[in-house]
Amino acid sequence: MLAGGNLLAQDTIPYKTLPPVVITSTRTKVPDKVWTNFQKYFTNAHSPEWYEINKRFLVKYMTEDEKNQAVFTKKGKLVYNISYGYEKSLPEDLRKQVKNTYYDYDITRAIKVNTNNREIWVVNVENAKNFILIRLENGELEEVERYNKS
Asked: Which of 61, 63, 131, 134 has the greatest CB tally within 10 Å of its CB?
């Protein structure tokens, strides 16, 4: 009886919900300056698909066997670039650093983020028991998250 009363009291507490956030994107034609800078930065890019999102231009494209995406301002300034790769995508020194620390793990994904003159690698490693997310920047390795496999 007491438990039921508590549930009833909880139902009468007013709460406020925020409106949903909706981000829309559409394929779009890009300004010449954006297109020119894209070609300048990513000379080996192919199959670009452009979208306008929040007054910026997102391009998804391929380079060899890697998926990539980049965001440009309307004036053609590169905001960021993300490359989705694998172990072979990691520079040799970073691969050795990860392997020396996580020697019993396989590198399953290596994602490079370039923004504001920073190069950040997000690396997934895993073995039979764990899945670990690692962040590498300026020679520093940081374990971001660790999950135990069930």
From this structure: 134
